[in-house]
Structures are given as C-alpha cells and as structure tokens.
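ESCALATION

Customer reports they have been waiting on this structure for their group meeting. Please prioritize. Original submission:
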Amino acid sequence: MKVSTGTLAAPRRKPMDIWDVLIRLVVIITSLACLLPFVHVVAKSFSTDAYVIANKVFLIPRGFSIEAYKKILADQSILHSLYISVLITVLFSVLGMIITICAAYPLSRQQLKGRKALTVIFLFTMYFSGGIIPDYLMISNLGLLDTIWSLILPASFSAFNLLIMKTAISSSIPTSLEESARIDGAGHFRILLNIVLPLSKPIIATLSLFYAVGRWNAYQDALFYIKQNIDLRPLQLKLYYLIIQSSESFQLEMTQVQLSNPEVLKASCIVFATVPILCIYPFIQKYFVQGVMLGAVKE
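Update from on-call: job pushed to the front of the queue and completed.
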C-alpha cells in the first residue's frame, strides 16, 4: 500500500486590522504618558545635584546618589508622618468598607421598600455638596479640629463606591441562593456574612483599594483641619509643605536641610510617599482585575 506523505499547510495569518493597530498604539502612548513621568522623578531622586541643576537627568539617574533619601530617613518627623498616614489609611478604608457594605446590601434587596428613592438620594450627593466652608464649620462645631477623626469620618463614605457595591451584589448574588438560605432559617446578618461577603471578595478588594488610594493621596482636608497639632500631619501634607518651599533651604520640622537643588529632595519625597501604596497592589491584583471586570461579561 502506498502512503502519501504530504506537508501540512501553514496556518494563514489573520490580516492586520488598522483599528487593532490604532488601539494598541493609543494604549502604548497612554501607558508611557503615565509611566515616564514617574520614571523621570525616580531618576532625579537618585541623581546628584549638579546633573539635576543642568537639566541632564531624564529617565536614567546621573551621578547615582542616595543622599536625599538619607536626609529624609534621618528626619524623625517624616517617619512619624508616614506612620500617621498608614494609620489613617487603614482606619479610613476599614470604616469606609463597613459603611459601604452595610448600605449596599439592603439597597440591593428587592424586599426593601423605597430602595429606589434612597438610591436617588445617595446619587444626588455625587453632584451636589455643601462646600468647603460648611464642612469646616461642621468639623469645628463637632470639636474634631486637630484630631485624627477629622481626617477619617467626613469622607469615610463614598456614594460612588456604594453604587458600585450595590450593582455588584445585585448581579453576582442570585436571588435563589438567598431564598435557599432563608428556607434554612438564615437571617439577613447570616446571609450577609456567610454568603454575600465571601462571594463579593473581588469587588471588596477593588473598593478597598479605591478607598486606600484616595485617602493616601489626599492632603487638602489635613491642610484645613490640622493646624496646631503638627504631630497629626500625614505624609502627603508634609510633602505639600515641602514642595511649596521656593528657597534652597528647607525646614523639615526639626531638621534644617541644605541642598543645592531642592528638586532632588522633592523627587525623593514623592518616591518615598508613592512606594508604600504601590507595595499593596501586587497582593490584591487578582481580586482587583476580577472586580473591575465584574458585570462586563455575562454567562
């Protein structure tokens, strides 16, 4: 019997689509626009003063030096501000998620009468607010000025995060699952703790990151509410006071820092304040991606 030996035909390549090229190009340009400024700041923070003064530092450090970081770490007030920022961020995120979950779960249940009206009320606060002066007067009348709670309580609730959480619970928790739990005698708290929360880990991780990043980067409320008690100044407020300095001599609370170019110290403080929040992302990246894609694809 004669066996024919033939060659397998090579798979045809899909013709290149111009829209795919444009989309990839836009994504690359957008990514570089977000990444390159931070790389430039990192390069300046590790460069010597002479190269920074001459504007010769772009994406690679010139004359590698860590003197600016040594000066930052030598200042105890900077380290104390880092501790205050971490403490405030943790308390703020935990409290914010507790309030968001407790508000989103009942609004996602059809048994709650008037839930649409309540949702509209929460939505209204996203477009209209009292303003800075009424907020300051309220914090002052409550006796919260120069206290750590002035940085936690006022912004611990986000209507935007509430709506995301409500939508996620409504779309990811089947009604039949809740009805089965009710038949077994489970109440609302048991359903929330044993069913809703375990199935909502992706969206909880996503919103927790939103709360943490928003609180970590905020400094305006600390600028308004923390005046006398300098021990409660968070790291971002320290960075703000440092950046607005225009002279070559900077006062870092107790330490007088002399630099030939203040840009090196500014870049070092920016990197010092950014690294902690970047270290959190790898641990929740899996849940973050799932939370962002939640509801985008239906089976």
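Sent to customer with the following note: The mean pLDDT is 78.
Escalation resolved.
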